[in-house]
Design a protein that fits this description.
Blueprint (H helix, E strand, L loop, with lengths): L10 H4 L7 E4 L11 E4 L2 H14 L5 H12 L2 H29 L5
Antiparallel strand pairs: 1-2
């Protein structure tokens, strides 16, 4: 994150030529045992990647996908991200403020 505390845009979002793949995982932002990832592809690559995936390793657990999709559709994921950004902003501010508070506090002799 930049100093403004706003997330930097993903390279995929800046790509006008359709050459960037965006791979992410819910394990980092929800919980590690979920083991559910996603891939954002240029439209021309969706069918070839879907075919390769079905040949290579099949599919993720359908229940985990369905529950995660509902979680996102109902707005809980966006709310979770907002809450986590607020929490980590507060932690960052506390960490950055600690040296200033330490310098400002009187020291016993």
């Amino acid at each position: 994150m930049a100093e403004s505390l706003q997330p930097m845009p993903a390279l995929q979002g800046l790509d006008e030529a359709g050459r960037v793949l965006y791979l992410g995982t819910f394990s980092k932002v929800l919980f590690p045992s979920l083991r559910l990832a996603y891939l954002v592809l240029p439209p021309a690559l969706v069918a070839p990647f879907a075919q390769a995936r079905s040949i290579q390793d099949g599919h993720s657990a359908q229940l985990a996908q369905a529950v995660t999709a509902d979680f996102i559709a109902q707005g809980h994921f966006a709310a979770h991200l907002r809450l986590m950004r607020k929490l980590y902003r507060q932690r960052r501010e506390a960490l950055l403020g600690a040296p200033r508070r330490r310098r400002a506090s009187p020291r016993p002799h």
